[in-house]
Batch of 3 targets.
Target 1
Amino acid sequence: MNSRTDNQDLITLAHGNGGRHMRELIEQVFLRALGNQAPDAHLDAGALPSHSGALMITTDSFIVQPLEFPGGNIGSLAVHGSFNDLAVSGAEPLALSLNVIIEEGLPIALLERVAAALAEAAGHVPVICADTKVVPRGEGGGLYLATTAVGYQARDATLPPMGLAAISPGDRLLVSGPVGDHGTAVMLAREEFGLSGDLKSDTACVLALTRALRDLPELRFMRDPTRGGLANVCHEIANATGLGVRLSQSAIPISDPTRAVCEILGFDPLYLACEGRVVAVVAENIAEEALRRWQALELGQDAAIIGEITEARRHAPVSLITELGGERILMELEDDPLPRIC
Amino acid sequence: MNSRTDNQDLITLAHGNGGRHMRELIEQVFLRALGNQAPDAHLDAGALPSHSGALMITTDSFIVQPLEFPGGNIGSLAVHGSFNDLAVSGAEPLALSLNVIIEEGLPIALLERVAAALAEAAGHVPVICADTKVVPRGEGGGLYLATTAVGYQARDATLPPMGLAAISPGDRLLVSGPVGDHGTAVMLAREEFGLSGDLKSDTACVLALTRALRDLPELRFMRDPTRGGLANVCHEIANATGLGVRLSQSAIPISDPTRAVCEILGFDPLYLACEGRVVAVVAENIAEEALRRWQALELGQDAAIIGEITEARRHAPVSLITELGGERILMELEDDPLPRIC
């Protein structure tokens, strides 16, 4: 490979300088991948598609390392992350805005794979505005993305914005599938432990899961257990309601590869990020119905009822009934044990 | 200063790990600066304030170096950049989303100054969702921001989204003030030429300027001349319409400090970024009225009619009538001569 080829294959500062190289990069990588879903490059601001229902907006930055991992890459992760925040709020995505900060030297082929995954994850939802910057070598982590998603409150959604306030003792907790796969997969991809095997990230859009529950009148709350995992969502619930959360260890789905890796490395999967799961709190009388609805979906076939809301328990707001019948307090996480998983 | 104090004064990776340190940083820096305009930290997605008119959305990333410069910092720049893209589209800002990517080691005092400038620039417009990440030393440029602004098409705005299509030969070009101050000020702050003097960035919100013109029925087009400056906007107009743009050198306002610095360093201020100016194209018969309206505003007191639209001129789509009466072709910029000015 000669140096001319090298230059064509890697991002240079010229790709960020507002001129022809930048226009060509955007056209050949992002506009090609996005097709009809791409923004109009002539406009400073894009118009939102027509909609009904109150508008919701959510934003996230993505600094995951490595940029690619089994099951996805930073592009699919960025779209799923934003769509999922809308989904658990009872909303449907309407449009996406995209910021791309590229470090000089990034292989263009990698950028193409990211753009393709991003476009596939966005599906029919248009990217209506975007911005690309290139930073010098040594001032970026290869690629950072920021996505802002605008959505509308679905007509059938009964979920109030502060659904947390409706949570009562006796309510049940459900999770839509095995926990901790994303955090474990990214850690393995980063650390090269040689343990990868069948493990892959759960990164996925959870809209099918939230659509399935959101017309249930006694659905209280939904949240995607990302940073800090299932344990963190339980602490959010306990902190916001003043009530307790008691989980049943034997009921919590954990995939075999994640369980094996966590045992070897000493991680607790309850604290590891998911990027394609939903935790829901529902009234006891609809818990079985909610479970059936989730299990009927491909993404929810391993869903389970994993615990319940209790009266306030000041010294053990979140606890786990172990398989041996003991009770273990789940502490609040001070720091993410696996940073840069999103 | 002992090391304990040092640690408290600089961003560490722990500030990005989702735990207590991160919560405290966000509360003490961003929520404090934003006051009532801050997002609700309990919600994954914020609701947009009520509005009328079609919604517009725009996004930008900011990697300016240095992070602070005479006249502003990356915080004010990020808000102005997003609001101005809405403003020139005939829209009013409704809400802002904010992404903050901080490099380990950034002084927290600097972050506080950025947050304060950002909050002041946002004014009454709420930041309804936000995300903060910390990247390891050597993987960021101190601080990157990405802002997405949602706005609504103002009721009095006659500006169609594709106002470019209405541009005709004989139309006049106006600029709202001196060009090139932002690019020159950032370059001087970066390069430490010892030439600073009175020079400061023009970074400002241009809403007052766009509000003043947007009900004029024969307003064709507005654009903020950022990267690539005035010359780049003229090429955008020429490229999109197939018509020519002829500027009058003696009419173009350029501040004395910017003129002096550009002469010494060999830069052309017509190609340097502004961050608080508007270029407007209007029908000839309303050009004087548009000029009067701008000159009545503090931000527009140096506004001028600087040129006109001509029939197509294939080999000289954008040209400048010099002070000596000659004609100079303004070439299309291949690369930004001063990268990282926004």
Target 2
Amino acid sequence: MLRFLTAGDSHGEALLGILEGYPSRIPIDEESINRDLARRQSGYGRSDRMRIAIDRVRIVSGVWKGISTGSPIGLIIENKAGRKGGDLPAQLGSVPRPGHADLAGSLKYGFKDVSPVSERASARETAMRVAIGSLCKLLLEPLSIKLFSHVIQIGNVASPPYERLSAKQRLRVERSPVRCSNIAAEKSMLRRIDLARKRGDSLGGEVETVVLNVPPGLGSYAHYDTRLDARIALAVMSIPSVKAIEIGSGIEESRLPGSQVQDEMFLTRNNSVRRRTNNAGGIEGGVSNGEPVVVRAFVKPLPTIRKSLRSFDMRVLRSSRAPFVRSDTCVVPAVAAIAEAMVAFEIARAVTEKFGGDSLNETKRNFASYLRTGGRGLSS
Amino acid sequence: MLRFLTAGDSHGEALLGILEGYPSRIPIDEESINRDLARRQSGYGRSDRMRIAIDRVRIVSGVWKGISTGSPIGLIIENKAGRKGGDLPAQLGSVPRPGHADLAGSLKYGFKDVSPVSERASARETAMRVAIGSLCKLLLEPLSIKLFSHVIQIGNVASPPYERLSAKQRLRVERSPVRCSNIAAEKSMLRRIDLARKRGDSLGGEVETVVLNVPPGLGSYAHYDTRLDARIALAVMSIPSVKAIEIGSGIEESRLPGSQVQDEMFLTRNNSVRRRTNNAGGIEGGVSNGEPVVVRAFVKPLPTIRKSLRSFDMRVLRSSRAPFVRSDTCVVPAVAAIAEAMVAFEIARAVTEKFGGDSLNETKRNFASYLRTGGRGLSS
Amino acid sequence: MLRFLTAGDSHGEALLGILEGYPSRIPIDEESINRDLARRQSGYGRSDRMRIAIDRVRIVSGVWKGISTGSPIGLIIENKAGRKGGDLPAQLGSVPRPGHADLAGSLKYGFKDVSPVSERASARETAMRVAIGSLCKLLLEPLSIKLFSHVIQIGNVASPPYERLSAKQRLRVERSPVRCSNIAAEKSMLRRIDLARKRGDSLGGEVETVVLNVPPGLGSYAHYDTRLDARIALAVMSIPSVKAIEIGSGIEESRLPGSQVQDEMFLTRNNSVRRRTNNAGGIEGGVSNGEPVVVRAFVKPLPTIRKSLRSFDMRVLRSSRAPFVRSDTCVVPAVAAIAEAMVAFEIARAVTEKFGGDSLNETKRNFASYLRTGGRGLSS
Amino acid sequence: MLRFLTAGDSHGEALLGILEGYPSRIPIDEESINRDLARRQSGYGRSDRMRIAIDRVRIVSGVWKGISTGSPIGLIIENKAGRKGGDLPAQLGSVPRPGHADLAGSLKYGFKDVSPVSERASARETAMRVAIGSLCKLLLEPLSIKLFSHVIQIGNVASPPYERLSAKQRLRVERSPVRCSNIAAEKSMLRRIDLARKRGDSLGGEVETVVLNVPPGLGSYAHYDTRLDARIALAVMSIPSVKAIEIGSGIEESRLPGSQVQDEMFLTRNNSVRRRTNNAGGIEGGVSNGEPVVVRAFVKPLPTIRKSLRSFDMRVLRSSRAPFVRSDTCVVPAVAAIAEAMVAFEIARAVTEKFGGDSLNETKRNFASYLRTGGRGLSS
């Protein structure tokens, strides 16, 4: 069973990650992980810290002669900047910032100082999640399962969803400073970010992750915690700043009559199933149905804004203004990369559960055999 | 650790449920569970089956002289109507219905008949989840943690969220045939449901669950799967027909600048924390912050509509129309009751994790002691 | 992932069981489960209760037209005798019996009465485990994996282990009143049991479970909780009265030099591996190695003996004698059946993890393909 | 919930460990962890590798100003000797060694080379388990729960169990080169080890771990996987070379009549419970009963012996002799340290489950309150 733990504080010496249950014989390319780490760090709207310290992963175990061994994969990402307290302002001290875990975490863990909380509640830990997700993509690629993620909204500027994009527009995303497929939308987004930065304000938005070539049959309606959509909801909602999740066109659907939202099925000549719509977002009854899995996440604007927010001092019990820590103006493009990683993990987990396989060879063999004998559809 | 499994097919003889890790010495009132089962079954827009067969739970273990013993609680809900195939039409056979698990489940489990899939993928199993949630509420009540759930949208008719309701309006909900606080909205909803039923159509909507008196400190940012919002997202997304989840005002927030959405903190005279807004929905950094936990779920309209949908026959591989099974027009009020149950489970699970306690006495003692020494806020 | 929960008190109305993650399309024979329930109940040395109330299972879900559907299997075993307090003597009350969970459970769950504890801590719940294990055997049989269990010691009378038995002796076990392969040993055992019963005393012993045709590669050394021997140790140690576990000849081995205990490997003509010894009990490095898996469990004599044991009254805090509840003289043969069930569960769990498979067809196909391409050994 | 993962290959650059669910505010003393690492490495009978490379842990996260923060604790132990292939002989190659995971692991993970298997199946990974266990002891110490571990047998030389030792003999253990309390036994053991080393042979034995001041009520009979003895059995059986586990006097008990093995209870003047025997090893019905928890593990002799063992070459499918890798003669003293760590983990896990507590303060408060109101015994 694929599972992972991560450790690491925002200004500690390193992040650690351990991925267990990863099949053997998967070619491991450290550079492809580093590319994903860079995708998380890039994005117009990030603060300078991101640009100075480029994350690079070091794999310390579970790989032999360039392929995975089936043993736990041990990962280290060093914190180059800010080691031991770096830019964490001393005055953060005992005044919890609204919108952060500061207050809740201090009460929970018994601190009157915000630092031991914010060090872990920080989104810094998501760098390791991206590395884990990157390994999961290396497992999915040989099965032709591919992930795509992009930004479909920043502030009140929207950009079209994946299914309305041309191949060319899809390619555009990786070159866009805001992971946006649409030039006009991108321009507006950049302008809003500039404006927000000038004002010391922040912007949220919406990201979309699409998984292509997902076989039907991942997840199960058998129990509440085996449903694929439920697991994806946990994985994506767990990303800092994400406050809402949508599968397919779930929100819009809720306002329409049932007659307008069904994804009818058509038989093709070679007896596979085609649909003209994908309102279900690739999941029916908690099980992947063979269509692309579509997951959208809504990202709140970061709470670290120049406007001084009301709070109080936990030590002296007096009203106080929350400290302003210079921060990112907009992290929506980064959340797209993180959401892709978390969805990749859940899809990979469901794949190893369904197809077993201690080695890539075995997983591929079982996967192909399932598709051949009916999983693809119908011809068996 | 609180956990449960359920079993039971839609037209089988009974649903079973087992709840493990439930503290001892909690007074168990079978009738309060039955009331929750009735709330799930009621609601304008349900089909006749609901009215005929009133669900009643039977507790077969884990209770002694009216109180829980700490042993697994065994539950049975008999399927009074429809036993063994009852109203399941024979023609359902081999044509998967769009919007159901039919196709995905048949491919996954290797059937060319839809019945073995639809028997479990059916929302029938949620009756047992409601019973489980009801037991969880019996654990939360002695800690003063209360849940409220209502309908805030059916089709395109909206009704105000909890925080804008008067006490009187809140009380109204339990008497409303659509679990709606607002008379005008209710009227519109009933009309839409009548119209939809006449047309053989269906309606979705949106429900809101609010948890009151949640102590700060449930859940943790320590790992992705310990975050309270993430766990709630899984639990609620796992309800059949739910396709999107929102914590607090997560969707609206994503479009606003950060300066407009923060929940500032104010110190009261007796040194507790007050906020004037709750955009965060009671959860910051994955941890409850002492404000009400607010969860919204978007419900798609049921796919069983009179309009005949295109599909195909899995046996003969020929195009076919999906069978129309007479069904509910609108299940949104029922989903409110189910969402309440699932949220109750996750809150109860987080409570037993944080406060331990093998008996209610112990949990209460630990809970009170936490609040006294700082968990309430700040006075320690 | 295969998992189960059980519920049910010793004198309650029924035991419930739910098995989740069980593949579809496995032919389910209720009678074969009942036969295993009978094996658990039989055995010279049981009290009369066992003979009066023959356990029979009722499957209420997860089966359709005689085959499993992939949905949770719901099981009910009714408590025919003793319902609601039956032969539980009133005087059991507040005096904990040494050797039972009475004291520890009362303190843990906050009772000053032993009943709510002993109702669940009783070995009665193992009936449901046997039913679960029986279902697991139905999954293993189509893969040719077979289990054998017998008694190799009662009191100080020993009987040879599996590997030294002839085929005929192995067959003998099912007909023996003490599940013993050896006529002479059986005679001695029966005499000791008679003597112990006359004295109001009890006898423990040792059982052995052997799993045949286990493919190499179940379990993993990757993490402590994925090792097959560790998981089996948990599963078997969890049986009431079992106080020690041995894999292969683990105890004897610990006293011998390394040069005398290794299982050397020999290549056969058709390139499979043969060993002349199996000291490792089929597991090397936490992974099955293709040899029979051999698990031994040591069973303590039941603590319910006529000799009155010293204890105290929890209510009045005064010394007291523990009540004598008429009970079984020897449960070792029953433990053999239960150990078989628990080992079957762990082997089945490891099989579904390695080979995946939502349907028996898929599991079989993946299993066969693994054996063909190397898993059998070496010829790929 | 306390959980951990480890990563790291025998000759890789480092071992990683992540411990999640560890309460905050526990003083963390890196040196006490290093002392436990040294205990694992010492012991007469280890090879030279152990002496050259002294393990030292580096904590990279989860600690702030010397106390734990409640965030995951990240640990690194560098592999000073042998980095990247060091003393792993090239000829190990494709001939699996009997008694190792070599064959089973190669078949499972699809290798025809033993190295990727033996790198992880090696006992090297237990260094990180000892570090994890050491952190668990830091959590248990403030609750007065203490662990003791020693060697009670090497080869066929036995030494008395804990309960028969004087305080002075107990102290002796830490100074003994074989962790043995008895001078005469120690002498014999050293002689056997010398002899075995000379012969290129190896020796196994038996270790005992005792946990003192365990409160009654840890673990539960409610479900098979919540029993404390079952969990300890998994944890200890998962240690490489351990092939049998005994709780209390489980093996001897199995041969005695019930009248001779019960631990009768006596009320003391201040109304606590005393027993004169502890055959149950501190666990009745799967729950700790307040007496010392006693766990014994049987250790097989290492399979790396000079005598050349028969095996075959997986590449060319020809009979071959297994390579002889110079190795430890006797690891029994090291297993004592590892068993102590694994038992510490399981006890700490059960403590955090029962008493909750996100901070040491909270856990201690809840713990004390339980003892006061009945958990100690009886005076409430």
Target 3
Amino acid sequence: MEKNILIVDDDRRILKSFKDILEPEGYSVDTAETALEAVEKCRARPYNLAIIDIKLRDVDGTDLLAQVHEILPRARKIMITGYPSLENAVDSVNLQADAYIIKPVNPDTFLKVVAESMDKQLEAEQMTEDKVVGWVESRYDETRRNRSKRKPMGPELLPNAEE
Amino acid sequence: MEKNILIVDDDRRILKSFKDILEPEGYSVDTAETALEAVEKCRARPYNLAIIDIKLRDVDGTDLLAQVHEILPRARKIMITGYPSLENAVDSVNLQADAYIIKPVNPDTFLKVVAESMDKQLEAEQMTEDKVVGWVESRYDETRRNRSKRKPMGPELLPNAEE
């Protein structure tokens, strides 16, 4: 199962260090240095997870959060910042972030938050599919029961057709 | 369509005032004064929305948020507080709150946040159902096409059976 992550940060060294932490764990990682680039990438590929720094060059990370949420409502969004504030934390809740990490963050904590978010995202997709399969099966059973009650048998099922 | 809301606050006057704002708008409102009572009610009824005050008598509202999220993962959760802090805002993000409102809140703003959260909740349920219906229909069409290719016609479809 693919585990696609987009990381958005205006600092290339940070992008590289997160990529180096995530890729050995089996994640497929894209990066973006600006909100504009991030939006283009989100339109092109349904990421499971977006990790967004709150201070970007072109816009506030919370504004980008809102845009990513609109393009990819089912993706999980992790906000990350070296400048935590009540305001940007409240914005993060209200704009549908799934996690808020304060820098500096140690690699183990970072991987734990990413793994939990990814698990929840894949589980939510899976639940939708299971619900679909459940419905299909119950409709199929019901249709078959109804058909066996009312439908005349085709020639291949009549006793003399078998012999 | 039912729009069920649970409000949790240890102040009865606040519960009554929120109830008085919400019920005329067509919401069905239950209240709880403690986290314990809230958990019992969530187990008994699948609320669309829970509105949780962050200061409760028995536990922190953010702890209750985590419990409500576990019992009712698809319900929307709105945190409300007269004591906003970076810590409880960050906890609210990380424990999957959908909104964070700072008291005092005027009734119009409150109703707007509730209406938006309710719309998103109902839309998410609807999307799941639409996806189910879409799958059922496409599987049905495919099954019918396959059947018409391989299955001999039953007597009711033979030309002489029609006349």
